[in-house]
Amino acid sequence: MICQFQRTIKRPISIEGIGLHTGKKVKLKLYPAKKNEGINFIRKNTLIPAKIDYAHSFDYSTSLMKDGVVVKTVEHLMAAFYFTGIDNVFVEIDEEELPILDGSSKEFVEAIKKAGIETLNEEKFYAVIERPVQVINGDKFIKAKPSSITKFSYQADYNNTIIGKKVFTYVPNDKKSYEGIFTARTYCFLEEVEYLRSVGLAKGGSLKNAVVFHNDNVLNEEGLRFEDEPVRHKVLDLVGDLYLLGYPLVGEVFSFKGGHRLNAEFVKTLLKENAFLIKLSSEVIKTINENYCNAGIKI
Description:
The protein is α+β, with helices and mostly antiparallel strands. Helix content is 23%, strand content 32%. The chain contains eight helices and 21 strands. It has helices at residues 75-84, 106-115, 175-179, 190-198, 229-242, 260-272, 281-284, 290-293, and strands at residues 5-9, 13-18, 25-32, 39-43, 46-49, 55-57, 63-66, 69-71, 89-93, 117-123, 125-129, 133-137, 140-145, 151-155, 167-170, 187-189, 211-214, 217-218, 249-250, 252-256, 276-280. Helix 1 (75-84) crosses helix 5 (229-242) and helix 5 (229-242) packs parallel to helix 6. The longest helix is centred in the last third of the chain and has 14 residues, at 229-242.
């Protein structure tokens, strides 16, 4: 989402649901924030910045922690903020895990649109990749390179005829790829469910908030929203996790079999290697307007 000015929501938003892994009911409230305040979570009177410095756990989701206070499964909401160009917002939560809703960013995006978006009188900052960077873990890797066109790609590699080796690329401000990513749901395999629950995870999981595969079959009655929905969701997760850099990236990012842990390692590597420069929107693109920012997105 390439925008000229920083953004927040016009009015507070309330969202309720259950946590995917905890199974607990949770209430979420989003409040407008001023320019340069950033994205911050609030729980137990503790303010937790949505930054990689506070990333805590990456087992089947991304969690943040500060002073012992944890906020779990933040990636779908963070992706929704990226998709709608939100830079500044406070997220108050009364439980440890964000609601899973339908398993995608769809309901978060729709709630933000309904509340309205406020354009602030301050230019937006971007993290512009200046040189190639890569992280590798076994046969998995994420690499990025400088580019005037921002792209986020993911390639799967499953021994499964439905997912297989599919690739999906999300290009911000491209209507087709935008509409095809934020509704992509999380997924798992039936044989994983017993293990996940044995280690205290997926207590709130169901066919209402996840796509479940058994061998080469989809157990959800409605089937897939897209033939490559799982790969699209991996890109959604990638976008949400990378937004923990604190700024939207400008450049090309390609992930092969990556997950939350590798996504976090990639963000840390970007910082460690000083592989990007922070630039104002006016430096990133010469001609920009709100129509470009909102390409294909009616707000």
